[in-house]
């Protein structure tokens, strides 16, 4: 093994080890039990029984024994059992199932979801994403497309792990956060594969990771612009020249090896198409309709909103933009009662620049190049889908949906070439402090006074009663 490669791998493994140790320490007692919202582990268990669902009798029994929360994000289907002709209520995990695939062998060894420690499993894999992000940044450095040193790349990778909402997400274990952690690991691999697009095996691997990512966090599939750019870049016969964007585009087209890029695109697309086919088959098996993904069948209190506006709508945009970009901590008066914290955090989270002020450096990059624009073309569709979604991420410490694209933002920080000077490190220190508090306190007994989770009834646009939460526009 070449010394340079060995050094990279040692640093990557060290990042994984540091992340795992700190995540495990902060997770604490959660490591010793299963969580109450272990949908992926339950999914793996019922697969062993040859089914996709829990019967109502089964889930009610688990709920009474405090093994699972039956009232939180299960798709409920009323059907007739073809064998007996009796009506039956079935509870399905409607979340994409790749995390359950990963958990399956461990659930099988444990014997049941009850005996499987899902939070421990998530902590064990949570360091993979930051470690792969480091290797991706190192690949850019080797290609001469990033000015960062290996030390700076390690710093940025650890900053992603502990100075963003990834930190509090990694120590929860529950179904919503587990999906984020698995997806970030896949995204780290996707970045690394994209930056190796000159190799055909990496093209196929990138497509496979996107397919698995779609079966984990659906917005993942919108990140194909990065691969499209990288595959075209490595398929150029000569360097592109030109004084204007139009001239450069024309020159690039004339120098593009079109056969080579089509081969790369085909290798990339085939696993994604297969993943789409698998998803449609899964939907058909569960709900009798290949285009029913299950989230319109959830047993959550917000379903009236979904019936009115759909899963995705312009209606949700202003609320979600508030959560992502302007929502601040609540400062209460000194006369607040003892059970109310002097500072509180909304259940809708906080603005990204509050939890991670490092993102402000994205506004003034020192260097802009084709990769810069390709990365933004990757981030924007993912972020837009999240912003149009009916859920803001509630309940959360910070805007957790940013996990869907945060690794791309850290690549942008790297290639933007702004010095990681005193101000940047000061912002990192702030981000470390606030995200550490979030990781330690979020949904922990004894810290309830620091969170404001108010919901209330308010007439919707047509005058009918509807449940709302703070910052939501009336439905």
Structure description:
This protein is mainly α. It has one domain. 53% of the residues lie in helices and 7% in strands. It is built from 19 helices and eight strands. The protein is globular and about 70 Å long. The N and C termini lie far apart (60 Å).
The gross shape turns out to be: globular
Q: Uncertain segments of ≥5 residues (pLDDT<50)?
A: none
Q: Give the fraction of residues assigned to helices.
A: 40-55%
Distance between the termini: 60 Å
Strand order of the largest sheet: 1-3-2
Total helical elements: 19
Strand-residue proportion = 5-15%
Overall pLDDT confidence: 94
Task: Compute the CA-based radius of gyration.
Answer: 23 Å
Structural class: mainly alpha
SSE topology sketch:
Layout: H1 3-27, H2 39-48, E1 53-55, H3 56-64, E2 75-80, E3 87-92, H4 98-110, H5 118-126, H6 128-142, H7 150-162, H8 166-170, H9 175-194, H10 200-214, H11 225-234, H12 245-255, H13 258-287, H14 303-309, H15 317-326, E4 330-331, E5 343-346, H16 352-355, H17 370-387, H18 406-415, H19 422-441, E6 451-452, E7 455-459, E8 465-469
Helix pairs in contact: 1-5, 1-6, 1-7, 2-4, 5-9, 6-7, 6-9, 6-18, 7-18, 9-10, 10-13, 11-13, 11-17, 17-18
